[in-house]
Write a sequence for this structure.
């Protein structure tokens, strides 16, 4: 009797089909694989040499200085004396996301930061979008801060030797007769030199610079308080909550560095223990200093007299004391402080590209590690030259807002990733857990969306163009060269 349910003897069973486009776009990289690949690059390996102190200093170095030394002069005219409230709102927004970063950094201690977290939870396409936002966040941030460094360098040169850099070489095009911002390019190349020596050497230099910047801000508060006038706080919120919100969105730019420690996941000695601690500790220290300095600054100078000068604090020191010495001293400290921001943010940028390159989504050269220093040298040089030229050619205000929207978008995805990973891998070991379940990540997501909505239409247009370019690059390059996709295709071929 024939078994009509059995296939004919000469029929070959169908081969497993390759996954469709939608499936490939949503493929996730297992957490175990992310961790197992930690530190491995092309021709070498990143070295685990950073402890809690160095990781905390990396986050403080990347954060402290941008808002206070550079963007405060832009934010005060938007919010008035309520700029202190703007700092608090921006800090709370950062706190919700910092909690999510702390949980994921302790669970997935790798170099890719939120890019890797998204890859493990929401799939490759979302991970690419997040990584592309990080390129905007870190790369443009380096350029923006480098522009502010040039302002303080001029203050220092003027106060010490009575010489200033000509406007044509001290400003980007379109700003006060600028043609090419040479100081901005110089500070990026100096940071590159430190990074080429390796993570440990860079961290040592950064720690010294962070101590200098904290001392400078404490000194400013001590002297600025002597000129404090309570009348400057009359009409605390003259431009309403809309002004506070707009200033907060701009000032959020000054908090972007707290996640820098998460990019050091493959160079930390005990990443699962130290990364969450470093992230939270750095955010607390930075927020306290920001609010204190902003309060003293507005108390010492009427808010209507603030302008968009990047050297606002040095000018306040001069006005209060009537002497140029203190302003010159602060300018010297600011030159050191802002250089540390450039150094640490540039470090984060290179490590994110390292992770993306290892996954095959960007060219292999970004994952090539020098065997002696353990640093991705080619990656560092390419990124530094690009950011340096960007700093020399684009005005600061546009850069700051573009950085904010990229940061907020990436942070929003991190808050989602926490919730997704808890649902998909509830039993995974976590060295830190965001309290109150999904409530705080949800608040973090809402705050990020709210602050994104406060940004200008021009900023949204730039962001849209940036994302469109990123998607084109992904489908032309990354989609076809993804290591995860290649491994899956090989597995399917082996089954055939």
């Amino acid at each position: 009797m024939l078994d009509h349910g059995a296939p004919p003897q000469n029929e070959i069973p169908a081969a497993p089909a390759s996954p469709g486009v939608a499936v490939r776009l949503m493929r996730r990289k297992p957490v175990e694989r992310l961790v197992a690949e930690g530190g491995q690059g092309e021709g070498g390996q990143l070295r685990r040499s950073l402890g809690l102190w160095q990781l905390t200093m990396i986050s403080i170095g990347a954060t402290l200085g941008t808002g206070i030394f550079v963007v405060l002069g832009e934010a005060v005219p938007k919010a008035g004396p309520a700029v202190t409230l703007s700092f608090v709102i921006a800090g709370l927004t950062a706190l919700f996301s910092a909690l999510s970063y702390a949980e994921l950094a302790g669970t997935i201690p790798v170099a890719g930061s939120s890019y890797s977290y998204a890859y493990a939870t929401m799939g490759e396409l979302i991970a690419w979008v997040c990584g592309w936002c990080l390129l905007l966040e870190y790369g443009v941030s380096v350029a923006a801060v480098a522009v502010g460094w040039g302002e303080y360098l001029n203050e220092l040169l003027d106060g010490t030797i009575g010489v200033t850099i000509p406007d044509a070489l001290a400003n980007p095009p379109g700003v006060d007769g600028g043609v090419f911002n040479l100081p901005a390019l110089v500070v990026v190349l100096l940071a590159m030199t430190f990074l080429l020596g390796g993570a440990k050497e860079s961290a040592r230099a950064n720690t010294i610079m962070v101590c200098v910047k904290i001392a400078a801000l404490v000194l400013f508060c001590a002297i600025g308080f002597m000129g404090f006038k309570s009348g400057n706080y009359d009409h605390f919120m003259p431009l309403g909550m809309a002004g506070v919100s707009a200033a907060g969105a701009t000032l959020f730019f000054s908090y972007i560095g707290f996640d820098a420690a998460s990019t050091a996941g493959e160079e930390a000695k005990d990443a699962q223990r130290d990364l969450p601690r470093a992230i939270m500790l750095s955010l607390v220290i930075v927020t306290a200093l920001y609010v204190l300095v902003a309060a003293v600054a507005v108390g010492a100078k009427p808010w209507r007299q603030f302008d968009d000068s990047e050297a606002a604090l040095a000018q306040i020191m001069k006005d209060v004391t009537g002497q140029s010495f203190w302003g010159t001293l602060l300018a010297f400290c600011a030159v050191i402080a802002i250089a540390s921001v450039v150094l640490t943010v540039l470090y984060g940028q290179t490590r994110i590209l390292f992770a993306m390159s290892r996954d095959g989504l960007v060219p292999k050269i970004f994952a090539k590690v020098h065997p002696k220093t353990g640093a991705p040298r080619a990656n560092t040089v390419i990124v530094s030259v690009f950011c340096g030229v960007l700093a020399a050619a684009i005005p600061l205000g546009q850069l700051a807002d573009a950085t904010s929207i990229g940061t907020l978008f990436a942070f929003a995805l991190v808050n989602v990733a926490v919730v997704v990973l808890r649902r998909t891998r509830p039993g995974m070991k976590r060295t830190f857990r965001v309290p109150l379940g999904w409530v705080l990540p949800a608040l973090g997501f809402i705050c990020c969306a709210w602050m994104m909505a406060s940004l200008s239409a021009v900023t949204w247009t730039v962001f849209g163009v940036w994302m469109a370019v990123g998607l084109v690059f992904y489908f032309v390059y990354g989609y076809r060269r993804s290591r995860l996709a290649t491994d899956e295709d090989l597995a399917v071929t082996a089954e055939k």
In short: The CA atoms of residues 112 and 352 lie 5 Å apart.
